[in-house]
Design goal:
six-stranded antiparallel β-barrel, single chain, 118 residues, mainly beta
């Protein structure tokens, strides 16, 4: 199902098991929705996390993704993916294999709000 509520990018709801890590603390969790620039995570156990922290997410389907926390409404965490070619390739691969009827909306540069993330 595609979620759209005044957002720039369409997000796809998903339920991927994930291992979430932030500041050396880990929790099992899940990816609730995904776009080419970000993810919404669900943490099963509370870990120290703050806006601006680096977060890593490990899934069987996409491997290791790296992002930056943008918002927290525990147990949900929103993160902007660090837009490396490696992260982009993993997300694109997920769409090709698990959601073959979907195509990513843009293949150009990241929106201005994410351009400063390295």
């Amino acid at each position: 199902m595609t979620v759209r509520s005044g957002r720039a990018l369409t997000r796809d709801r998903t339920r991927l098991a994930a291992k979430i890590e932030c500041m050396g603390q880990k929790t099992p969790g899940a990816i609730l929705d995904l776009s080419e620039h970000g993810i919404c995570l669900f943490g099963f156990a509370e870990i120290p996390v703050a806006v601006g922290d680096k977060i890593t997410v490990l899934t069987e389907e996409m491997g290791l993704l790296i992002g930056t926390v943008r918002w927290i409404r525990w147990p949900r965490i929103g993160a902007a993916l660090v837009l490396t070619s490696n992260n982009r390739a993993k997300v694109e691969s997920y769409y090709k294999i698990f959601k073959p009827t979907k195509q990513l909306l843009s293949s150009g540069p990241a929106p201005r709000s994410y351009a400063g993330i390295a």
